[in-house]
Specification:
The complex is a heterodimer of chains A (196) and B (253).
Chain A lengths: L1 H16 L10 H6 L4 H30 L8 H23 L1 H7 L2 H6 L2 H12 L4 H29 L11 H16 L8
Helix pairs in contact in A: 1-8, 3-4, 3-7, 3-8, 4-5
Chain B lengths: L3 H28 L6 H9 L13 H10 L11 H12 L9 E5 L20 H8 L14 H5 L5 E4 L2 E4 L9 H5 L5 E5 L7 E3 L7 H7 L9 H8 L3 H8 L5 E3 L1
Helix pairs in contact in B: 2-3, 2-4, 9-10
Classes of the chains: A mainly alpha (196), B mainly alpha (253).
Chain lengths: 196, 253
């Protein structure tokens, strides 16, 4: 029971309270680049959930069974990047062969997010927080779900904004940044939830 | 003192990781190899790459796949025209299907100064939004609203807005039909077009009675039927129609 509660709090802390996009401000390049349309942001969101889960599982295993016993903790940046990139390549090949429909919907987003800073950040934070394997998976799921939900909300707002009479000075990215800032303020409201 | 073992371990680890990943990927690329149809690739190369969607597919690559499978006709690519249609026929080794040129034609001739407004409109400056919100701010319920939805949607830069009226450049127009579906009042249509021959069109789509049109538009069709009479009797009917039309709403493009 205690453990379940712990997992729940890890999930919500990652999902809302420390939202990767709006509170930590990681992975912003894809957040602004791909949020023009609803469909593309759905593709990006699912791809991020997929890759983040896999990469955190693999990086946790690599760190605790290889790097830590060999006293090579300082190599984690290089080795995580290498392993995550290789793994996503493998996944892409596999999906292309066996699940063509899924491949078409994720498409270019899989290789795109391989080098996303949010993916690497989650792999590091799992180590820094001393999470167990299950905990790190739950944490990765919370973070990626937070990413997917926020990019979807943002895409919805941006689609509405495309028809709005915005002053010329603010058209395009300026108004997108202002919107993101207001969303971040709104997400600050989650801070005191569950007593964190 | 640096432990020499750590350096060796680090080199070994990264080497093994890299080699292992490379090995796995090279195996996977063989095992999960997806055979691509070379014809799809060949068709994709000759398509214009505008991704306009006039063919009914999601884009040029999608059309190449569907054309190779026979799901879409080989002459469906409007921007590509006869050249692409015959090239695709050659690649697939099937009979050529022919191609008719089509151009977009605007059936309204009233420019900004000629339109009579029934209210001032201050909302979102787009035709579709305007038509949805207030049903048109003009007296004429059939005419061009002039915010240029067609101009914004044209992927080939063929439309220019002159005094609030879209003007279609036939040299650039491919007949993809994007403007046709963009216009909320359905005043743009695709018409058959032969190279070098002039195209005549009625620059009005009003279905109002003549007396109503006469009050609200100086260039609207007033249903006088002179053109119908001339077409039945004359040798060069269209040219005569252009000359005889009392409101000059039959135009040569």
């Amino acid at each position: 029971m205690d453990q379940a509660k712990n997992l729940f709090s890890i999930f919500f802390a990652a999902f809302l309270i420390n939202n990767i996009l709006l509170i930590r401000f990681l992975g912003l390049c894809s957040f602004f680049g791909i949020s023009n349309h609803m469909e593309t942001s759905i593709g990006m969101g699912t791809a991020v959930i997929f890759v983040m889960m896999i990469s955190s599982a693999v990086s946790w295993t690599l760190y605790h069974f290889v790097l830590f016993p060999l006293h090579l903790e300082f190599l984690r940046t290089a080795s995580f990047i290498l392993v995550i990139a290789a793994l996503v390549q493998l996944e892409e090949l596999y999906i292309k062969k066996s699940l063509p429909a899924l491949y078409r919907s994720m498409g270019i987003y899989l290789p795109l997010i391989t080098t996303n800073c949010a993916i690497l950040a989650v792999a590091f934070l799992n180590i820094d927080y001393n999470y167990s394997f299950i905990q790190s998976l739950v944490y990765a799921f919370g973070v990626s779900l937070g990413y997917a939900v926020v990019i979807l909300l943002f895409a919805g707002i941006r689609e509405r904004m495309s028809g709005a009479p915005i002053p010329k000075l603010f058209q395009g990215y300026p108004i997108a940044f202002i919107t993101a800032a207001l969303m971040a303020l709104a997400f600050l409201g989650f801070t005191s939830m569950f007593g964190f | 003192m640096i432990d020499i073992n750590i350096i060796i371990n680090a080199i070994l680890l990264m080497g093994i990781l890299g080699a292992f990943s490379a090995f796995m990927i090279s195996i996977a690329s063989k095992v999960f190899h997806v055979a691509l149809n070379p014809k799809v690739e060949a068709i994709n190369q000759i398509l214009p790459g505008a991704n306009c969607g006039a063919c009914g597919a999601g884009g040029c690559t999608d059309y190449a796949e569907k054309a190779a499978k026979g799901l879409l006709p080989i002459n469906a690519c409007r921007p590509g025209g006869a050249k692409v249609a015959s090239a695709i026929a050659q690649i697939l080794g099937i009979e050529e299907a022919g191609f008719t040129h089509k151009k977009a034609v605007v059936h309204c001739g009233a420019n900004e100064t000629q339109r009579i407004k029934r209210a001032e409109y201050a909302g979102i400056p787009k035709c579709r939004e305007e038509e949805l919100a207030v049903g048109g701010y003009l007296e004429c319920t059939y005419g061009c609203l002039g915010f240029g939805d067609c101009y914004l949607t044209c992927p080939f830069d063929a439309i220019t807005m002159i005094e609030g009226l879209p003007k279609i450049n036939f040299k650039k127009c491919t007949g993809c039909g994007k403007c046709v579906s963009a216009c909320p009042r359905n005043i743009i249509s695709l018409e058959k077009y032969d190279e070098g021959k002039p195209l005549y069109a009625i620059a009005c789509s009003s279905k109002d009675k003549g007396s109503v049109t006469r009050k609200i538009c100086p260039v609207g069709c007033i249903k006088c039927k002179i053109c119908e009479y001339k077409k039945a009797t004359d040798q060069t009917p269209w040219q005569t129609c252009v000359e005889k039309c009392p409101t000059k709403c039959i135009v040569k493009l």
